[in-house]
Amino acid sequence: MKHYIFSTSLVLLILIGWEVGAQIYNKSYILPAPTDILLKLWELKGILLLEHLPATLLIMVIGLAISLLIGGGLAIWMNKSQLLEKTFYPIIITSQTIPIIALAPIFVLWFGYSIWSKVVVTVLITFFPITVSTFDGLRSSDKDMKELLFTMGASKRDIFFKLDIPTALPSFFSGLKVAVTLSVIGAAIGEWLGAQAGLGYFSRRMMTQFDGAGVFAPILLLSIVGVSLFLFVTSIEKYFLKWRNR
Asked: 209 — phi, psi (to 5°)?
């Protein structure tokens, strides 16, 4: 509880300092005050919540679903075969060394301004933590326990579902919590570079109008979405990993 008090106090101090600094600087198109951002968010709540937020959420949901399939599948395959691990693991690492901001325009060129250019950016950002964390979790499975289960007549399928997966779940959820927050960034980057709707698109449009509060308002909403998704995954993690808290 004390940690939350300290973090809340720090956030409040930052916001107060920001508010005072913005009022002194008095150039809202560059540095809007937090109160101006909240007022703008309330003013634009209709268009942001009904038009642009659903477009961004759709990108995030599709991107995360694809990342779960690709990341989970790759992790399982690499855990089963050293050849696949040596083949795909360096490629997975290399994919994260390429600046996403440089690839996003290429995806727009390939897929146009459709939803798929933004989905690909989101997938490229989010599949990595899911793949690596799940793979590490599967690889940490107790070898002595595996041998014991083999001697007791367990099949590979039994070992996978009753030992490997339970062992990998904590690592999987750790990667998923990182991925859901990164999905916000991926969707925003994709929309920023080319879209017809979405919070990232709206923020960029407000920038061309020199509306500082209008730029920050959708960003604040994106942050709220990211935190909400993180808490949602955390609640699912606590449900499936009840044994860890006993």
From this structure: -100, 5
CATH of segment(s) 32-245: 1.10.3720.10
Claim: this prediction has a pTM higher than 0.90: no
Q: Is 61 helix (H, G, I), strand (E, B) or coil?
A: helix
Q: What is the pLDDT of residues 52-86, one digit of tens each?
A: 999 999 999 999 999 999 999 999 999 888 888 88
CA distance 199 to 239: 31
Rounded to whole angstroms, the Cα distance separating 76 from 98 reads: 25
Chain centroid to CA 89: 21
Q: Tens digits of per-residue pLDDT, 163-193?
A: 888 888 999 999 999 999 999 998 888 888 7
Indicate the DSSP class of residue 161. I
Domain range annotation of the chain: 1-27, 32-245
Both tokens of residue 197?
């709707």
Vertex 106 angle, CA 67 and 214, to 5°:
80
Helix and strand numbers (H, E) in the chain are 12, 0
Could you give the CA distance from residue 97 to residue 112 in angstroms, rounded to a whole number?
A: 24
Residues 6+ apart with CB under 8 A from 126: 63, 64, 67, 71, 179, 180, 182, 183, 186
